[in-house]
Amino acid sequence: MQGVAGLYFKYDMSALRVLVRQDRDSIAQFIVRLSSIIAGIVVISGLLSKCMHLVGDACCKRRYEPLILNEANGKGSVTIS
After folding, report:
1. Cβ atoms of 78 and 70 closer than 8 Å
2. DSSP letters along 7-58, please?
3. Tens digit of pLDDT for each residue in 12-56?
4. Fewer CB atoms < 10 Å away: N or C end of the chain?
5. pTM of the predicted model, to two decimals?
6. Alpha carbons 56 and 35: distance in angstroms, whole number
7. Are 64 and 53 in contact (CB under 8 A)?
8. Is residue 66 part of a domain?
């Protein structure tokens, strides 16, 4: 084949057939998928909350102070010093 150099495409212009079906999942599958989405949201929000607390503690340099049992009144109440 001698001729003009190039990239050539051959298109097939036949008609396409599109078949549309609508299937429904059972109620059990719906509940399982819904509960997994809700559980994922709870887990991600817990992780984000923990990360925000760690960042806030690191930025503000807050340290947790030790708890001291106050046995002076005999009830064993907890006070933070």
Report:
1. yes
2. -------PPP----------HHHHHHHHHHHHHHHHHHHHHHHHHHHHHHHH
3. 777 778 888 888 889 999 999 999 999 999 999 999 999 998 888
4. N
5. 0.47
6. 31
7. no
8. no
Number of domains observed in the structure of the chain = 1
Residue type, 12: D
Measured distance CA(80)–CA(34) in Å, rounded: 44
- The answer to whether residue 32 is domain-embedded is yes
Q: Which domain holds residue 25?
A: 13-58
Residue 51 lies in a domain: yes
- Tell me how far CA of residue 45 lies from CA of 34, 35, 51, 70, 74, in angstroms: 17, 15, 10, 37, 41
